[in-house]
Request: fold
Amino acid sequence: MAKKPKELVNGKRPFGKRDLVSYAAGDLGCNMSFALKSSIMAIFWTQYMALGEEMYAFLLMIVQVWDAINDPLLGSMFDADKRSYKRGKFKTYIFVGALGLLFSGLFFFLPLPNAPKVMRCILFVLGYVLWDAFYTIANVPYGSMMSVITTVGSERAQLSTWRSIGSMVGNIVPMVVLPMICYDASENLKGEVVFIAAIIMGIVGLLCFIFMLKTTTIRVEENSVTISEKKQKFNVFKAMGNFMKNRAAIGATLAAMAMFIGMQSSSTATTVLFQSYFGNAKISGIVMLIGYLPMFLFMPFLKRIVDKYGKKEACAAGSAVSVFGALLLFLPLGNGMAGLVGYVVAQVFFGLGLGFYTCVSWALMADAIDYNEWKNHTKEEGTVYSLHSFFRKLAQGLGPSAVVLIMGLLGYDGELGAAQPFEVATNMKWLVAALYTFSAVVMFVSIAFIYDLNKKKVEQMTSELAERRASASETEKA
Reply:
């Protein structure tokens, strides 16, 4: 008997597994570039390229000025762009950004440690600015795309989970493999190997983006900036004002910033911790990976948990567990096997609590975008998401620069490489514990007390938006 064809949705195939795999591939592509930069950038530039902690932190703060212009500007341009593209607006922007990420990533990791210091500083600033621009061009429409793939809350939660899977796979490569191949017998970084890795990972990332672009189905009109009968001219300042009034967007953004301050900003201190405290940089990636594994516990039950309890409620409970895991890092177990085991146990609890938030974090932001439409009658996906992305990248940029400065105050000297004094290595242990605790506490407060889209409110918002869109559609037909 022939298989009965599935009913089309708005003339498009129904939501299914292909959407999940396709969306996951997009964040895998993003993280092939982003995770390489975030996991090894500070060690590459402070130890291998020998910029020095103060100069590195200073230059990193300077390039964040570009972030202040780059994210909201490109996001508002995306919202205001009403041109018709052969492959669609979202996919066109993503492809341009993906191609740029490949070449800017290679430029950023050129292994030229003997170049004049002025040249090395120029390479850092120019490479970072180029990488950041192309990352925004690819990532802002990619993140916003969730809201036009589906409007169903549970399906968005699934997309967010699979995005997290793609992100995790993209992180595993630099996090686990790079420490194994990029450090020599003395635990010092080999810059030429990092450059080769950037070439390979850049190509893989581009292929992942191409796969996503060819297999993604968009079911909601891309250029639906307003749903009211009267079309209004796009106002970037008003859009930014709407974002600042959006408690859900603020809460989701603060939680994301906290996560990056705790897990990304501490990456340099964590590397030094394994280099000089545990004396084995090569296993650092494997230990960090353990913190990601609990995410898999939630995947089979994610839809059921979201439907029963709601995204906000489950994330708040999970972040409370993360606070407990972070506090375990303060246990004085030493740098032997007991200390390493204690570190792993703390990672398990931290990852267990963080796992659910990681799985649905992007669905939280998609609901916040819908909230903006619900309250302000405008769909400003690009601006809302780009402002969210800006604050995330502010944490990703200013956080590591501040942490490197703190490391310097605690005695860290990049020119010593892995040969840090034991007192300094011990300071890194306490610094990592403090960063993780700060991260977990802020995440809990942001989700539990600031993010205000609970299960009941999301159901009301989704229902009213569906009715409003249907009414607007009938009006346009008439």
Confidence is low (pLDDT under 50) at residues 1-5, 224-234.
